[in-house]
Amino acid sequence: MELQHNSEKPERYIRDHSECRSSLSLLENMYTRTIPEALITLHGNVCMEKMSLSRRAVVGILFTLLLIAMLNSASNIKTVGASGTINIRIDGSVDPSDAPIETSDNVTYTFNADINDSIVVERDNIVIDGSGLTLLGDRRLVTIGIDLSERRGVVIRNMTIGNFTWGIYLASSSNNIISDNVIMDNTATGIRMLESSSNNTISRNQIVTTDALGIYLLSSFNNTFYQNTIKGSSDGMNFEDGSSFFNDIHDNNITSNAVGIRLSGISNNKIYHNNFINNGRHLLVQSTPGTNIWDYGSANGGNYWSGYTGMDADGDGIGDSPIIIDVNNIDRYPLMEICKPWRTTGISVSTSPPSTLLGFMVNITGSLSDANKTHLEDKAVSLFYTSGDNPWFLISSDKTDQFGLYSVQWIPPATGYFQIMAQWAGNVTHLGASNSTTLNTLPYQNRYVFSVESNSTISELSFNTTSQELSFVATGPTGTNGYVKITLAKSLVSDATGIKVYVDNESINYSVKSFGDSWLLLFEYLHSSHTVTLVLNLDGFSGTTFLGLEWWIWVVIIVMISAMIITIAAVLAKRKH
To answer: Which helix (H) or strand (E) holds 453?
Structure first.
């Protein structure tokens, strides 16, 4: 039961009996919970009859009632952590040590009881998990629920925070995550963010503040607010100051507030895919705002605004008439229906050259699905390529089939290094997606091509004709997974099982598949920077050159010269006879 104080006492029973009022006051002062109505009524009736009882009897009855109240209260009061500000110190300790917060590693801190006071965080890169319990303050005082001033990398999750002046306070704070909390009944602001707080993520919170601000942001940038429900506030969100920029506000439910969002002079923020429902005013602009983005393009749409009366002639779920806030702020693609959180999507891309001859064609294939592994059918996937510092060029596009698959063929304009990207724009229900791979090609003997596909950056691709070694350097973000696919001509290597693969001079295993006139070798590794070497053992290859010509060219030349000499000798011999 929530601790509370009920001011509506049945005064009609005791208003003329000061002694009874005094004893009842004693009971209520000993317990902050509400005294049962029946007990108060009984007490009042006893007082009304007290003129017919002796003083000793009255005292005995009052004492009995006191014991009953104590027993009744003790059976209903929930364990609550001792009051007093709790500090998570910079060394990881919790002060006071008997506070109801546990940690075994000085990284994750977990509530083990409700707490009736504030928490001040002095340590970076920690997790504070409320375990579904409450952090409550005293509304009569000026207090902060959780103070994250000047903190980095702190996660606040799974708790109810209420009855403070400010529920969560960030000042000069960065890279923090506040998610999956109920933040309610704080007297000034649910979440307050100011003094260049940046790169914080506020997500999946229920923020309810009566006659106060849900989220207040001042002079802060690069923060993300998504999938929050903000309701019942004077201002659901209040953003101020021209230095509040590059914030991303999407997929929030902003409902039943006096003002949905109040903007004062801010610019370069993205506000899209939110639901503005039954607010007194969805939007209030004060002072001259800069330009903000109110939609995610024609495929994904803007925001849902209850009361919008525009039409949707083509039935794509996007209104035909924009919502004009001012000349610099326009929701060009308002949504016709309440939007649900976007489902994330994933797209794959891979290449498989069907030939290893110069002028070869590359098959680019992949699939598109959402986070639930549901195939996305009939979606237009676009393919692009670039090389070096050049811009992206469109290769082609293809629509996914019933299994979410697409396929495009491409003839590279030359050999060398290429980056290939697959991209889907998304729609009103799914986020867009993109992915890329690299393709490196190296000509050999003016006839064949070695090709190397990878999600790594490939450099220094070369083939040593003496040692028959194909080598390159593969680089990627440390600790992530890397892969390489290498295509080789069967006419050069008849038996791919004899190939040796080394990563940083360590032999590794690989898989091999047969495709047409080519072998496809595949192996994986953890990223950093690796030198990769393949010893190929080309068929009939001696590994020697002379004057820049391969051995087989010299064989042909020698055979031709020999044939000419034999022919000339035969002619001369015939003339002598």
So the answer is: strand 448-454
Let me know whether 90 and 189 are in one domain: yes
Domain hosting 563: range is: 551-576
Same domain, 398 and 526: yes
**Is 540 among the domain residues?**
no
The Cα–Cα gap between 542 and 466 comes to 8
386 and 308 in a common domain: no
Residue 188, pLDDT score: 96
Record the tokens describing residue 414, joined without a space: 């030359």
Distance CA 190, CA 179 (A): 13
Q: Which two tokens stand for residue 14?
A: 């005791």
Q: Which two structure tokens, joined as six digits, stand for 307?
A: 């009361």
Average pLDDT of the chain is 81
- Token look-up 């849900």 returns 214
In the predicted model, is pLDDT for residue 132 greater than 90? Answer: yes
- Give the containing element (helix H, strand E) for 24: helix 18-30
pLDDT digits (tens, 9 = 90+) for 245-301: 999 999 999 999 999 999 888 889 999 999 999 999 999 888 767 889 999 888 889
DSSP 31-63: -SSPPPHHHHHHHHHHHHTGGGS-HHHHHHHHH
Task: Tell me the Cα Rg of the chain.
Answer: 37
Q: Is 155 within 8 Å of 128 (Cβ atoms)?
A: yes
Q: Can you name the residues that pair with 565 across neighbouring β-strands? A: none
pLDDT tens digits for range 6-41: 333 333 223 333 333 333 333 333 333 333 333 333
The two three-digit tokens of residue 11, written as one number: 């005064």
User: 391: cis peptide before it, omega within 30°?
Assistant: no
